[in-house]
Structure formats: structure tokens, C-alpha cells
Amino acid sequence: xxxxxxxxxxxxxxxxxxxxxxxxxxxxxxxxxxxxxxxxxxxxxxxxxxxxxxxxxxxxxxxxxxxxxxxxxxxxxxxxxxxxxxxxxxxxxxxxxxxxxxxxxxxxxxxxxxxxxxxxxxxxxxxxxxxxxxxxxxxxxxxxxxxxxxxxxxxxxxxxxxxxxxxxxxxxxxxxxxxxxxxxxxxxxxxxxxxxxxxxxxxxxxxxxxxxxxxxxxxxxxxxxxxxxxxxxxxxxxxxxxxxxxxxxxxxxxxxxxxxxxxxxxxxxxxxxxxxxxxxxxxxxxxxxxxxxxxxxxxxxxxxxxxxxxxxxxxxxxxxxxxxxxxxxxxxxxxxxxxxxxxxxxxxxxxxxxxxxxxxxxxxxxxxxxxxxxxxxxxxxxxxxxxxxxxxxxxxxxxxxxxxxxxxxxxxxxxxxxxxxxxxxxxxxxxxxxxxxxxxxxxxxx
Length: 446
Ligand code: AMP
Ligand code: ZN
Fold this sequence. Notes:
alpha/beta, 42% helix, binds adenosine monophosphate, binds zinc ion
């Protein structure tokens, strides 16, 4: 079975066919003005899983994730705190990179920042082209993109043309999610705001053009996959298509993938409701980030996921059970093809991770080889290769063997005695239907 992905542009599941030898992937990154929250992390983990599935399928990748380091929100915060905006963006970019590691997210090949000279140049050049070809016009406070001129505007988000507010313009980076309005490509200099020189007037870029410029400069005019969270479908991704295709005259992206949102206690995350959690909040409640990653894997990326502390506690238990199983794992000799191909079928079916996790549990129970399990974990990303095999203290194996012999001979008094001795050595023995299992007490490997 070939890899199949849901493409928002066609609203269909399609077989993935890359343009060239290296798959070009662009993912909208964080706006670095605050700590990244668990909703954002859901999207970033979905993108990480996508990369791992592509790699599992043998593809080579170039992954670019931008950092939005200039926009309305950043400027507002810098103004309120009376600091240079770079103090804010540097601080939160560093925090973002720290958290990425904790969630075992594979780093991108490039993390372009909008304010870097080469990207700013690319934005200015794209806007100049759009002005020349009449897709853009100069307003009193900035350069605007005329959505009416771009005939396929609205195709990605499926919004109806009747929503077009003729002549209406927005200067805000985030606006009306229902209506079409011309949007700002460039905002003319306002007092005390950072600005850059441009032939059409000093100012700063709008948020949407940033992604069009960074993606095309890094990946070319046309590339394979573009992702983000569903909230970006309109207007952000719609606008990216309009600007890029109007400027280059070429198809911008082949596959659009959008991750559904994370809710908290069945509600939208909102600062005023106090339910916007970060990895720091998670750690304070005694949860490791990888438990959060496991929780994300239990829902399909196109379904909403409702976060509760109980669901995180279950995820933590499930992850610890996997580790415990692996720490005294016994491989069994049998044909593993069925399980291995079920896993592949699940991930190739538009990243069906809940099914893949179920297959992984089945594989663990049936005694699939450790090599195969760890291959599966290359996709799950739960760092299971680091699970320590538990080592018995000297002499303990001999006592375990003697206890087995005593049990086999029906001498349960003797076997209980030996269990006590082992206990004093720090080895806990439990008799299960699969025979006795042991665990080293105070083992901190899980
Ligand atoms: P932002 O920093 O707000 O631009 O968001 C960074 C990424 O997180 C974008 O891809 C958003 O679509 C995504 N995102 C924002 N809120 C949520 C949420 N509650 N659940 C899932 N993804 C989200
Ligand atoms: Zn973007």
C-alpha cells in the first residue's frame, strides 16, 4: 500500500506523489511572543509524525519551519513592556527550541526568521511584482492584495465568493474568519514601530507574505507539502496561495494538511479562561512531556482532541507500561509479517496513529522482535530505545532458577522463602500466567 494523505485542497485522500527526490515540507511555526502552549504542540507533534512517516516510507526531506518574529502581537507586547521586540522574540525562540527536544521532535532543516535580510528582500521583491502585475495596490496605510483579482481565491478554505466584502480592507494580521477582504502585504511605517526600507515605502511586512517569502526562497516556487493548524486555513493559508501563485504564475503547493485543534475540558483554549497550558505547567503537575506526546498519538490529527488531566494521567500510565514491558522483554519466535504490515498500513492510511499505537501494543504482547518494535518507535517517537534493560544483582539469577525449580516441584514453602531473599536483594518477583516476572526495585529507568 502506498502512502495516502488527506489533501485539504482537493478535500480528498490522495496517494502521495512527490515532485522530486527530496520532499519539500513547509510548516507554519510559532509566533515567538509567548511560551508555546499544548495546542500548538499538538500541531507540531502532528507535523513531526508526518515527517517520521515520510522517512519510514523511504523519502528524503527538506523541512522548513518559520519563526514569526515580527507581527502585530509581538509589536504590541514589546510596546507594553517597553523593550525592543528582539528581546521578546529571542527569549521565546530559545524556549521553543528547548521544548522541541523534550517532546522528541526532530528538528527542521531550517528555521528562517522573517526579519532576516534575505527573507525581507524576498518579501519586498514579491510585493514589487504584485504591484506591477496589478494584484496589489497602494492604500493610505499600506500595500494591499486585491482578493477579487485572484480568481481561485477561496478554493482552499471552501468559503463562498458571496462573502467578498468589496473594497473592504484589513490591516490587522489576524482578522475576520468569515469575510473576504483585501489584506495588507506591507504596512507603512508607524511611529516607534520597527521598519524596513522598500521602493514602495518604508514599513514592515504583513504576516501572510512572510510565509510565502520564506517558503519559496527555501523550497522553490512549487513544493510538496504545507501544513499548520486548521485555524490557519483561512485567511492565512488562503492568502499564502493567492500571493505566491499571483507572483510566480505557478502552482504553490501540492498537498495542504491541517491539524485539528486541541481543546481543554471541551472548551477552546483562551488566556482569560486560564486553560492555556504549557510544558512548564505539565511538568509542575508531575507529567513528563513524552506522556503528552503519547496522548497526542491517541487521536487522529484530523479529529479534535479534548485534553483533561485524567487523559494525561492515562497516557502516562500507558507509556510507563510500555517501558516496563520493554525493560524485561522476551522476544518470541514467530512470523511477524502480519503485525509489521498492519503497522505500516495504519501509518500510510493518512497517519492513522491511534490504529498504529494499538498495533504497537499488540506487537509488544505477541513478542515481536525488539528490532521491529524500535523501528515502529522511529515513527511514534517515544524514545523507547533508551529504555534500560533491567540488570539483576549478582547471584539473583541463581536464586530465581532455584525458585523456579522449587515451584515446579510443588515446594511452595521453599519458593516463598526464596522470594523473600530476592526481595531483600531488591528484586521483586511476580508470578504471572506467562511465568514469573522480576523487577528491580528503585529502578529509576522509568
Ligand atoms: P501561532 O503561534 O498562534 O501562529 O500557532 C502556531 C501553530 O499552532 C499553528 O499551526 C496553529 O494553527 C497551531 N495552533 C494554535 N492553537 C492550536 C490549538 N488549540 N490546537 C492545535 N493547534 C493549534
Ligand atoms: Zn504561515
